[in-house]
Fold Cell division protein FtsA.
Amino acid sequence: MAQPDIITGLDIGSSNIRAVILERESGGGGFSVVGAAERYAEGVAKGMVTNIEDLVSSLAEVLEQAERMTGFGIERAVVGISGTHIKTLESSGVVAVSKADKEITEEDVARAIEAAQAVATPANYEILHVIPKDFAIDNQTGIKDPVGMTGVRLEVSAQIVMGLSAQIKNLTKCVYRAGVDIDDLVFGMLACAESTLTKKQKELGVALVNVGAQTTSLIVYEEGDVLHTAVIPVGANHITADLAIGLRTSFETAEAIKLEAASADLKKVSKRDEIDLSKFSSTEKEKTLVSLKHIAEITQARAEEILNLIDKELKKIDRSGMLPAGVILTGGGSKLNGFLDLAKEKLKLPVFLGLPLGLDNCPIDKVRDPAFAPALGLALWGIQNAGGHQRRRLEFSSVDEVIDKMKGWFKSLLP
């Protein structure tokens, strides 16, 4: 039996690795979710590889789990990259239109994007994506797609997303050692937007926030274009650590309390309510009563810090309280009880939980979770950039060269 046309999205987070496998439906752009797997991640901290051997074994386990679920081998994947090392900067590129009749072609657009790429990248950084925001033809600005128009001078305004070369190489090395080829290496938030944001939200102005374990990532869209991206080095694990210190208990117990009893909204917690710590712990046998109010105070303080840092990023681009489509929260940390209401209050914007779109008939329930949004987005990215979407792939991915080099280099090491 021939293997079906499948695309795998691999989201390597600081606390969990998640994979989503989509099968492309024949004769159309449709897809169906055929598998999903997750496992605790080892060898990663704040989105950066800290131990290659640990990460390779974690990846191998997730892939094995996914293969058992789907019944066929996973040979390639679209891999997400994130972490505090990701940087963005604005750039522009100008070219002269090449055809004699001055009609702008795909090649002219590609040359303009290439010219925008020729920026002075910081030492040891590599360009991951060149995202065209808009074009100008002979000083007429605000053009979204210049192909077919007439002009002499074509200019593109773009945003460059860069990653630390060493981290890109370490991550690709781990994925290859786990036995999988990389179809594309994508900044996680760009892919996450594929699975959670509608075209209308991107046009109106929206911020997508992924609250991960050790980092919180942000991407802002306006008029359909990426306006700003940022990675903040604080995440949901910091809340767990605060609870562990504040309640004088283990990290595991604090994590269980955070998931089941904690609230980020003090107003909804009664002073009289208490919980017994021993019920959340396998090691503590003695009954220890703790006020839920005290737990909420600790949780809310750190949740407020995360939201204040998000607002600080929005202030940098003058969008604090100014995004009509509001804020969409994804990632495991977004499910914290009371976090949504606190976010509405602190960011002064409408806030919604970002559930993956287009999964009405999905048989795998766990994929509907906000924590799976990045992995699903990566798989969707793979579907949309295959086949007839070559131009978009060219605009977004300049990391293919690095991947090809890594592939050749790594294969030369194999026995």
